[in-house]
Specification:
The complex is a heterodimer of chains A (about 850) and B (about 100). Chain A is mainly alpha-helical. Chain A contains 40 helices and five strands. Chain A has a three-stranded antiparallel β-sheet with strand order 3-4-5, with no helix packed on it. A two-stranded antiparallel ribbon of chain A has the order 1-2. In chain A, a hairpin with a 6-residue loop joins strand 4 and strand 5. In chain A, helix 1 runs parallel beside helix 24, helix 3 crosses helix 5 and helix 7 crosses helix 9. The longest helix of chain A has about 35 residues. In chain B, about 65% of the residues lie in helices and about 0% in strands. With about 100 residues, chain B is mostly helical. In chain B, helix 2 packs antiparallel against helix 4 and helix 3 runs antiparallel to helix 4. Chain B has four helices and no strands. Classes of the chains: A mainly alpha (about 850), B mainly alpha (about 100). The interface between A and B is medium-sized, with 14 and 12 residues.
Chain lengths: ~850, ~100
């Protein structure tokens, strides 16, 4: 991963954490217990039971209940208030008090009326649907208020009906008087008057009245039925309804209970106390109108929960909560450590004085983060980081910590430009703001320790939020922040769990890591490790060469072939090298891995092979450096000396191993071996820079100047001979460009001269003739072959014809000898003396240029032919 | 985009309800919001600024909608900033100034 990837992962985790905290209420809705509670409600389990089995508080359960009803999951449909529900059910939605008052008024009227009508209390009670005692209570209340029943007495009833009492004095005892009494008693009894009252009114004995009545009944008389008190009430416009207030209330309670309303809501809607509602419910449960409270469905609730199979996170004990808070704080410590590492890279920490530094917001941020990091004493362990957490928020914290650890240990770039530092600082400030916000939201959690409110050195303390705010403002003011930093960091392929893939790329990555390990080691590896490394490199070179040939990359194959030979040489050289000093490197593991992978790799791709080659060459460089350093005190040459010992009585000569510093004498191949290897290492690519380009341009201009001067000279030399001028220009350019050199040109000249002399000898002609044939002036030819003549003059007479083998260490001279051997007798007398003088003097004067040779033909023509 | 417009409009309206020379600033929240998104900045439309609580809820909801798909951390921090300003606003009972 790169810096950008781990930083993005951290940002993402922190952002999700903030979101989780923000929508915690909504998350509660996603709590599986909510669903479960709703199902249990629908199944008819009681509140207590659900509360106990799910171990959630009544408040939360109430919310779940309401939410569940809001979703329309209960029979009553979407949530309506209890009053609305009652209205829908056709109930009187006035409060209980109102209904009670009205009912009392009606009761009083009814009782007063009926009592006045002389109905018996029992009858009244039946008519008003109340108890006899209630009727009596009302009557007593009425009487206490001064009401007197307008009682219809028997006398007044007789008077109303226009009936008269028989006069005892005038009416004799007998049938007539009996008939009159019988009629009166029948009338009064039919009106409901008591026997006593009838007796009093008629001036009879009660027994007599009873006798009359019995006789009346015996004769088939029945009293005229009185009107039903309910009819009387209806006639007077008093409506008490068929049911009592309590019954009405209980109907409402039943109605609402069946629809899942809770006691508080019912109490609100009915205008009652909650306990009254509870009382009504208990009465109803006793009467069987609603299902009993604690006897829900047949299935035990535990079984039902198990059947529903909804995963519920266990409720945490306080100890578990504290443990969770501590875990989160360990994760937080990791994040802080990462942020501190970033600011250590991104913020300059050196200031002349602390006061100057403290004026800089970035410095304050750096100091604050370093202090926070040092204050944390516990970090997340590998188990903390590696264990997925069941709680979402904790899991997000873990992800943040993992991203932080990855970022700190692996992805943090070491060298940053100024603009990249600004970008890194901006990321840091954002993450720290998130930490502060989360700190605030976790503050109420059990066992949570907030970040300190003040930071800074002892002398002056800064408020942490203010530091963060200042830094945020400060970083917001740097518009040049360079987010190319996101791409920085190691680009090695992430190791997946399990064995690495058998590809050339994996091998290249392993070698890359090995090269990084090895280059980071401060001293050479031990001699044994070095021998192992060299051997492994040799094998890797074989594999790589094979891969290159498979891919038809002959150049690469050649490179690896050379590497193979170099390592082979080194292996030989190291045969007797030993030494215990030095370090052991993790690179061994990686290289072993690479060898293992390469052994099984089928066919790679060209980029992978290029990676492998680069990694190998990096290793070559490091190994050659180590070999060079190792000769100075790490590696020693093992030689055997014969030593004389005297173990017993006799002298014994025995071979003893001696370790000496490696020198050119005892190990002549050592130095050349690592030198060759170093030469093989990848040439450094020089980055294009303005400086190097300017230098190149300067070199080019210098070369051009030199060439121009040379061309001017050539033009002066060959003013009318274009062919030679072009040839001279070409030679000059070649010399200037470094392709040709003066020495090579001289050698070529000597060869040309020899060829000319040979041609002259072979044709056996004169100089003029030769000149005509080959386009040269005779003087030039004479000058050209002059040294041959000199040699001839001294030696040719004595030289044997077969002696050219010994003398011919130079082509020119050899040619001359041949010439002499063939036709020396003809030429020597005629040409030699004068030619030698003329050319000799002319050559000295003219300083080697062929121009004055033009004077030569004048002198040579005379003695010439 | 619509959410962005609504958030800006509501925040601007909230700022307009503050008295002059107020210590609190919804404008800073607005600027933070602009920094947190790389969307083109829409024109704020006039909204009814009578009910401040409703404006706050509208602004917060709009930013939350943006956070669903935008850069999460930055927008969450914008929400946190808005909450901070709002709570100060409520705490000072709309005097617009910290005691």
């Amino acid at each position: 991963m790169t810096y950008g990837q781990s930083a993005a992962a951290l940002r993402d985790a922190l952002g999700r954490l903030l979101a989780v905290q923000r929508v915690r209420a909504a998350l509660d809705g996603r709590d599986p217990r909510r669903e479960l509670a709703g199902r249990l409600f629908a199944d008819g389990y009681s509140w207590n039971e659900i509360e106990r089995s799910l171990s959630i508080g009544r408040e939360l359960l109430r919310e779940y209940h309401a939410a569940f009803r809001d979703d329309g999951r209960f029979a009553a449909g979407p949530r309506r208030t209890a009053s609305e529900a009652l209205q829908d059910g056709g109930f009187d939605v006035r409060t209980f008090a109102e209904r009670d008052q009205e009912r009392q008024r009606a009761m009083r009227d009814a009782v007063a009326l009926l009592v006045g009508r002389g109905y018996e209390h029992q009858q009244i009670a039946g008519a008003v649907a109340a108890d006899v005692h209630t009727v009596l209570r009302y009557r007593r209340l009425l009487e206490a208020e001064g009401w007197t029943p307008a009682v219809v007495t028997a006398a007044s009833a007789l008077e109303e009906a226009g009936l008269e009492l028989p006069d005892r004095a005038t009416t004799p005892r007998g049938t007539e008087r009996s008939a009159a009494y019988r009629r009166l008693i029948g009338f009064l009894r039919g009106r409901g008057h008591e026997q006593q009252e009838v007796a009093d009114t008629l001036g009879l004995n009660v027994a007599t009245v009873r006798t009359y009545q019995r006789r009346l009944e015996a004769s088939g008389w029945t009293p005229e039925p009185r009107p039903d008190p309910a009819e009387v009430l209806a006639a007077h416009g008093i409506d008490l309804g068929a049911t009592s207030l309590a019954d009405e209330t209980r109907e409402m309670v039943t109605f609402l209970t069946e629809r899942g309303y809770i006691q508080e809501e019912m109490a609100d809607a009915l205008g009652l106390d909650r306990t009254s509602v509870a009382y009504h419910q208990s009465v109803l449960r006793d009467g069987g109108q609603i299902p009993p409270r604690d006897t829900g469905p047949e299935v035990p609730i535990e079984q039902r929960i198990a059947n529903l199979a909804i995963e519920i996170p266990d409720r945490a004990t306080p100890e578990q909560r504290i443990a969770t808070a501590e875990l989160i704080m360990r994760y937080r410590a990791e994040v802080i450590a990462y942020l501190a590492a970033v600011v250590e890279q991104a913020v300059e920490g050196r200031f002349a004085t602390t006061a100057i530094g403290a004026a800089n917001p970035a410095y304050r941020l750096r100091a604050a983060l370093l202090q926070l990091r040092d204050a944390e004493d516990t970090r997340a362990s590998a188990a903390d980081l590696g264990t997925p957490q069941p709680i979402r928020a904790v899991e997000l914290w873990r992800q943040a910590a993992v991203a932080a650890v990855a970022g700190r240990e692996r992805d943090l770039p070491t060298s940053l430009t100024r603009d990249q530092r600004a970008a890194a600082l901006r990321d840091t400030v954002t993450a720290l703001r998130a930490l502060l916000a989360l700190d605030e939201r976790h503050a109420a959690a059990r066992g949570w320790q907030c970040l300190p409110t003040t930071v800074g050195p002892k002398t002056d303390e800064w408020a942490l939020p203010a530091v963060v705010l200042d830094a945020a403002t400060w970083t917001a003011d740097t518009p040049t922040a360079d987010y190319a930093i996101d791409r920085l960091g190691p680009t090695a392929i992430d190791r997946l769990p399990g064995p690495p893939p058998v590809t050339l790329g994996a091998a290249a990555a392993a070698l890359d890591r090995a090269a990084a390990h090895l280059a980071g080691d401060p001293e050479p590896v031990k001699a044994t490790v070095m021998r192992w490394l060299v051997d492994a490199q040799r094998r890797i070179a074989t594999y790589a060469r094979h891969q290159a040939l498979t891919l038809d990359l002959d150049e690469v194959a050649e490179v690896h072939e050379k590497r193979y030979h170099r390592y082979d040489d080194i292996d030989v050289v190291l045969t007797d090298v030993a030494g215990t000093a030095g370090c052991e490197s993790l690179a061994v593991v990686e290289i072993a891995e690479a060898v293992r992978i390469l052994k099984h790799t089928r066919r790679g791709t060209e980029p992978e092979l290029a990676d492998l080659t680069f990694a190998s060459q990096a290793l070559d460089a490091t190994i050659s450096r180590m070999l060079r350093l190792g000769a100075a005190g790490y590696y020693f040459q093992r030689t055997e000396r014969l030593a004389v010992e005297r173990p017993g009585s006799s002298l014994v000569r025995r071979a003893v191993a001696v370790y000496e510093p490696i020198t050119a004498e005892n190990n002549p191949g050592y130095g050349p071996a690592w030198l060759e290897l170093e030469r093989l290492a990848a040439p450094r690519e020089i980055a294009r820079s303005p400086e190097s380009e300017a230098f190149t341009a300067r070199l080019d201009s210098l070369a051009a100047d030199t060439l121009a001067v040379a061309q001017a000279r050539n033009r002066a030399l060959y003013p009318d001979d274009d062919g030679h001028r072009v040839l001279a220009d070409h030679a000059a350019a070649e010399v200037i460009a470094g392709i040709d050199s003066l020495g090579a040109a001289g050698a070529a000249f000597a060869e040309a001269r020899a060829r000319l002399a040979g041609a002259l000898a072979a044709t056996n002609g004169t100089l003029a003739e030769l000149g005509n044939r080959c386009g040269l002036a005779p003087g030039e030819i004479a000058w050209l072959i002059e040294p041959a003549r000199g040699i001839h003059a001294e030696t040719v007479g004595a030289a044997p014809e077969r002696g050219d083998g010994e003398l011919a260490f130079d082509g020119g001279v050899g040619g001359v000898d041949q010439t002499d051997g063939v036709d020396g007798r003809d030429c020597e007398g005629t040409v030699t003396g004068s030619e030698f003088d003329v050319v000799g003097t002319g050559r000295d004067d003219q300083s080697g240029t062929p121009v004055p040779v033009g004077g030569g033909p004048v002198s040579t023509e005379g003695p010439g032919i | 985009m619509e959410a962005y417009r609504e958030a800006r409009s509501s925040l601007a309206a909230l700022q307009a309800t503050l008295p002059d020379f107020s210590t609190l600033s919804y404008t800073e929240v607005l600027l933070a919001l602009e920094a947190a998104t790389d969307l083109p900045v829409p024109v704020a439309v006039p909204v009814e600024s009578g009910d401040r609580a409703r404006l706050y809820v509208r602004a917060r909801t709009a930013v939350e909608r943006l956070a669903e798909r935008g850069e999460r951390l930055a927008l969450e921090l914008v929400i946190a900033g808005l909450d901070a300003v709002w709570s100060d606003d409520v705490r000072t009972s709309w005097a617009g100034d910290l005691p």
